[in-house]
Amino acid sequence: MIRLRARLAQALDYVWGGWGAAASLLLLVALWEAGHAAYGTLVLPSPRETFAALWQMTLAGKVWPAVVETSRNALAGFLLGVVVGGVLGALAGLSDMMRRLLAPIATLMLGIPAIAWVVLSLLWFGGSGLAVVFTVLVTSAPIVFASAAEGVRSLDGALRRMARAFRVPRHVLVTDVYLPHMLSYLFPAIATALALSWKVAVMTELLSGAGGIGDGLATARVQVDTVKAMAWILVVVALLLAVEYLLLEPLRRRLLTWRRDLPGAEARDMPGI
């Protein structure tokens, strides 16, 4: 009965979250229309003009290739950042020596603005997709590193000692003890890094002329075409919303389900218990 109530509450929360997101978008569109009425098309095109321009760009075959190129570069840099940051963070969590060695470097990299990495990547790699991948990598890896290190360091010491006492194989220890515990720390960092990846990729493309959505924004800026610029911004927003609600939200709910399936979790989640 408790499990059924928890599942029902989860379903209602998902539906309510969808309505809340829709209401937020409608409010944003209303404010957008009000801004257009106050300042005109040159400053802020109307939603209708923007959607019409986006439709024309789609029919002309400009949108989908740009989306594919930006997504490919952003995802490549993001995946590399997760692997590099996750592995180094795990090593830093397991070893005090590695933590003292790597933590200052990660802090330094977090302190460098993304635009500085863009400039360096352009000097090193030119206006190519590699510049985009590198910039996304160096901006996302430190975020994942910090969470991975904290996740390993916060693991219950008694649980580790028990695993050693029962001679649990190392690969089982990693997959069944370390990894599930780290997920609760890693997931928020991964979600943040994934959203950041698209924004950094577009910014790098805009400054480097490496193609993709950023190149479309750069062209609209040169042509002083605010309508097309807003259309490209709408494409970026749609991508971020798709990543959030089609990828991250299902993964987040799956992680919450895993945590509720732990012994006693249902009782802890129920009010008054």
UniProtKB/TrEMBL annotation:
Annotated family: Belongs to the binding-protein-dependent transport system permease family.
A GO CC term attached to the entry: plasma membrane
Main location group: membrane
Keywords: Cell membrane, Membrane, Transmembrane, Transmembrane helix, Transport
SUPFAM superfamilies with a match to the protein in the record: MetI-like
InterPro entries: MetI-like (IPR000515), MetI-like_sf (IPR035906)
Topology of this chain in the membrane: Multi-pass membrane protein
Highest taxon, organism lineage: Bacteria
GO aspect biological process, one term: transmembrane transport
Name listed for the protein in its UniProt record: ABC transporter permease
Location within or outside the cell: Cell membrane
Domain named ABC transmembrane type-1: residues: 67-245
